[in-house]
Amino acid sequence: MAYAARRLAVSVALVWVVASLVFLVIHLIPGDPAELLLSQGGIAPDPAAVEELRERLGLNQPLWTQYVAYMGGLLKGDFGLSLQDEHPIADEIALRLPRTLELVGMAGAISVAFGVPLGMVAALRAGGPLDRALSAWASFALSVPVFVVGTLAILVLAQELRLVSAGGYVPFARDPVRHVALLLVPAGTIAFGLGAVVFRVMRSSVLEVLEREHVRAAQARGVSPAAIIRRHVVRNALTPVVTVVALHLGTLLGGTVLVEFVFNWPGLSGYLVRAVEARDYPEVMGIVLVISSLFVLLNFVVDMLYAVIDPRVRHG
């Protein structure tokens, strides 16, 4: 409990630091949001209209006043209003975030489901034909851009074989089967490369654990290979895999733009691109803060998993 409390306190402090940095960086970007919003076709807007909009949005307040108001809003779950349509940003994030989390989570599950066992098999048969074939697949998967994988998936699975739709989104409550069908292809597109990463890390980790003294001692005592793998190899080999998967999932939260675009998946990344293009500062701040906070949360979960996998971490 003490270890969890310490890690939780550090995570909360990190979220506060991230929120402060996001606020400062966004407000240091050159350009007046009110003037940009009122500009049409390169024509300078009326100064009176710009000033009125700045006052309505609170942009004419001192920076520290805006900061206090912003942090106070965050404590209440209020990310402010969009500069484009004055729609509550929290509502839009709440609508789109589960879709991106679902996509990233499914991609992570597929990657682990395939990468971990294949990495273990390759390590146990290191140097053999199967190991070489799987390693060649991993090298290929890591070299192919995700948008190429997505485009080929649509071409083959949707247009040629007609096994799935080319893209889109259907709420789970409306049609669970179609929702899952539309989810699996973009998630599999992400998992194609991520699974190769998991495979490589698992293979290297298993090979490293097999060379440790306690494993060699167990082999010398005549312990069966299955028992050695179950008792000594799997748990120790999973630690770096957990780290890699968590870091990649955190990166994917804001990096699924191409996949969401190719498959027309209405997630958070597409919303971020739209906000950046419109220079809608409150939207950008809200999305970046949510993604950063989730990244911090993932690291907290990884720390807790470390404590479960290796109890020595709690006393380190």
UniProtKB/TrEMBL annotation:
Its main location: membrane. Keywords: Cell membrane, Membrane, Transmembrane, Transmembrane helix, Transport. This is ABC transporter permease. One of its GO terms (biological process) is transmembrane transport. The chain crosses the membrane at residues 7-29, 103-124, 136-159, 179-202, 237-264, 284-309. It comes from the Bacteria. It comes from Neoroseomonas eburnea. It is a multi-pass membrane protein. Belongs to the binding-protein-dependent transport system permease family. Residues 97-306 form the ABC transmembrane type-1 domain. Pfam families: BPD_transp_1 (PF00528), BPD_transp_1_N (PF19300). One of its GO terms (cellular component) is plasma membrane. It is found in: Cell membrane.
